[in-house]
User: What shape does this take?
Amino acid sequence: MTLTTPAVGSGRIRPTLVDMNSGDRPTSLALDPAFADLMASSYHRLVGKPLLPESTREPAAWLYRDAPFGLLAHDAAADPVFVYANLVSQKCFEYSWAEFTRLPSRLSTEPDRQEDRDQLIAAVHEHGFAEGYNGIRIAKPGRRFWIQDVTMWNLIDDNGIQHGQAALFRRWRDA
Assistant: This one.
């Protein structure tokens, strides 16, 4: 399996896992080892800490199903779309995987809170990562909640290609 970033006519770059043995059909990134490795290796390289426990046998499954934090990723487009949301994130935001992975990430924040989110993203673009962010987000039914102790980082592969950004939030509570 290979992680590719096909350029689409709209200019949107979306990380897609392609299984070379299955006729090049894209598969979900939820349990994809290559995408989990991209998130973990980028985090370790930029933040200087491991994203998951050293003894983890199946990193993709652990990040998606068992991680005690919310984990999200969006693509590298000008108006990024979520490409990953673990189960904690899906529960907090009340979106299914299919709904989440079609959602522009700007819609996770109310319009009057967009500037705060944009400043976080700009800091990550400039420095590679940012830590300690707290912000209000909005769930699918309109419920507002805090994400706290957030770390956001660029998803950069071993060749220096940026595939988007990821964020983890360690705590959350209703606003």
Remarks:
- The chain is about 25% helix and 30% strand.
- The chain has one domain: 36-174.
